[in-house]
Amino acid sequence: MRRSALAAIAAIGTASLFLAGCSKADDNKNENGTKSAGANAATKGVVNASDKKGGTLTYEMSDVPDSFDPGNTYYAYMYNLSRLWARPLMTFQPGAGEEGNTLVPDLAASKGVPSDGGKTWTYKLRSGLKYEDGSPITSKDVKYAVERSNFARDVLSLGPNYFQQFMAGGDKYKGPYKDKSAKGLSSIETPDDTTVVFHLKQAFQEFDYLVAAPQTAPVPQAKDTGVDYVKHIVSSGSYKFQSYEDGKQAVLVRNENWDAKTDPLRKQLPDKIVVKLKVNPETIDQDVMAGKAIDLAGTGVQAATQAQVLTDPAKKANTDNTFGGRLVYMAINTTVAPFDKLECRKAVQYAVDKVSVQTAEGGPIRGDIASTVLPPDIPGYAKSDVYATKDSKGDVAKAKEQLKACGKTSISTNISARSDRPQEIDAATAIINSLKKVGINASLKQYPSGKYFTDYAGVPKFTKKQNIGLEMMQWGADWPSGYGFLQQILNGKAISQSGNTNLSQYDSKDVNALLAKAIGTQDNNERNSLYTQIDKKTMDDAVLVPLTYFKVLLGRPTTYTNLVSTAAFSGQYDYLNIGVASK
């Protein structure tokens, strides 16, 4: 998922979790001699709960994040991790499964107060808030953070642009790097140092979810250096940066000016937190299973490790298999010929053998076969399969029929995938084999995930020039609602020239209007029915191929404390309060 960011989760019973070797997990001992909590335990509660302080906590990742800058990131794992140094107005309560979807105030003292039918939202900050240097955090810093993250897309292009789309006058404001006036965006008011008021151009009934994004974490304007701010981030959280080496490593230490009295959520347990980048995926698996690290990206163990885990009761007992509220799909680029024609897109829909894709991803434990845009655990989902084929294995005859209706007997195109995600590469390869059977010849183009959206798949000019008609994608909700899932991948207004996540470049007047209507609708049932309509319209237009409703198999390090798989961050462990157990 691009983030994908914030998503819902459904806990799975351990009885149906694993394919082989299902002995009692509780009979197994960890390497340090302690009893295992059992397979899937972190989807039901906090594993190894502890308030013990001290030690070094290590995260590892096979590539690099898009950015550590809270105003310039859009991956779920960075939304999750960034809360250690960046406190947004709202965030999600640590808790297992759906409990993790509960919104709670963070920098704000309470939830937003709506007025004017949901067009105006007011937040009061907690008192006594300070940055790492001891200077006070004010409402002006929150206002500035939103301005820099949403209105300077030529400088900071990686995060979503909801505020730019919905703030009154947002289409005219040039951002703080071009507009040097002290006033800034007039529709964000700061009547005093602890109050921030957002004036929207239309009702937005889910605004509390929106301000839970790290884009509302305060940034002192005097310390902002644009894209280089990532090198010297000023912390508002419980940890601060001791060092940052681009593409290699980041080291976090306690922020001595963080005050627990202003923060009921964070515990500040480890002495140090190390984030290692560009680590071999198999090495990450080994370190996780040895209790030496956490897989930062939360994408789960590799195929070879999965096979070992599923046949070893002791290893299996230290894993968590969860739905991630995510969809694995292939975007069909509607601006790249001949996929600007509906029939050519339908040919792709019928051609794909989804079982082969599921197998390439690691089998059913990695996801159920998908047929809709919305996953089953997101409000608005309704069971449907517009392009049903026997056993979901594709239909060559129907695909060729649509190809003929499109005026083609063959197509040559390219398919993009992330080079550091082996399962995504394998899934793309399976799709290529399916397409070849009907006369669609696709060549694989691999790009690193850290630049996938800034330089490659998320750059419309690049994809058109390179004839990239098909793009591998994984997406989770920015927040657990139909709107939080659909807006950034389907709304034409979300298309941007870099950092774009509407990879299909889908710009439907009907879908755009339905999204706008939904977010202004107060009644939940009515709002959810609109999300169902959007899903149906999108599938009728054949702009993306749903592949699987993502599941992740996480290795659970036995030497770390407070591990809980949360709905809010795609089934990942909640990174807010993980500690280090005594040896």
TrEMBL record:
* Cross-referenced InterPro entries: Peptide/Ni-bd, SBP_5, SBP_5_dom
Q: Name one Pfam family in it.
A: SBP_bac_5
Q: Where is the signal peptide?
A: 1-25
Cite a single GO BP annotation.
peptide transport
Q: Which UniProt keywords apply?
A: Signal
Limits of the Solute-binding protein family domain: 102-494
Segments traversing the membrane: none
A GO MF term: peptide transmembrane transporter activity
Q: Record's Gene Ontology CC terms?
A: ATP-binding cassette (ABC) transporter complex; periplasmic space
* Gene3D superfamilies reported in the protein's UniProt record: Dipeptide-binding Protein, Domain 3, Periplasmic binding protein-like II
| Name used for this protein in its record | Peptide/nickel transport system substrate-binding protein
Q: Which species does the entry assign this protein to? A: Streptomyces echinatus
Provide the organism lineage as a comma list.
Answer: Bacteria, Bacillati, Actinomycetota, Actinomycetes, Kitasatosporales
